[in-house]
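Example record used in the benchmark description.
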Amino acid sequence: MPDRQEILASLYGAWRLACFDENGMSSFNISVEGFWRSFFAAVILAPFYLMSVSHDLIMPEGGFSFWATLVHFGTYAAGWVIFPLVAFFATDLLSLGHRFTALVVAVNWSSVLIVSFFMATGLITTFLQGGAAYVFGVAVTTAVIVYHWFVMRTALETTTMIAMAFVLFNLVLSGMLVLAADRLI
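Model output (structure tokens):
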């Protein structure tokens, strides 16, 4: 588990990347230990994930749905495991294996900012009406995709197209996990 200083430094690095500052990478611990500790971001985000799926966890007649909880925890964990596994092989295939650890660390910690952006967007759009809420949501989603691309490109020290391929894979993976959870519940 990372200590408070590593968590704050990592979140600061993610923020610097959000400001399109490539030097944000220097705030991450990209050692093997830092790689494993970066998965603490999943612990930080777990309560927010639970809030977002809470409607599935409570049964209509009252009570708690053990099955829905199991499915959501399974897909949540899968999202944190599948991307690094595929990225491991993809970076090796693309001769970027030496950047794998940096990629996963940066993606994990930037996920905290991404979820924060979406949570703030959800709160703000409740006060906006109709088209304004839609336009704001699209703008934030676009900004998050661009941020995610910048994180991938910077961490991998690669081309725009390779970074976009990683972003697209991560988006498709997320969508597939949401669909899988919906079908199983």
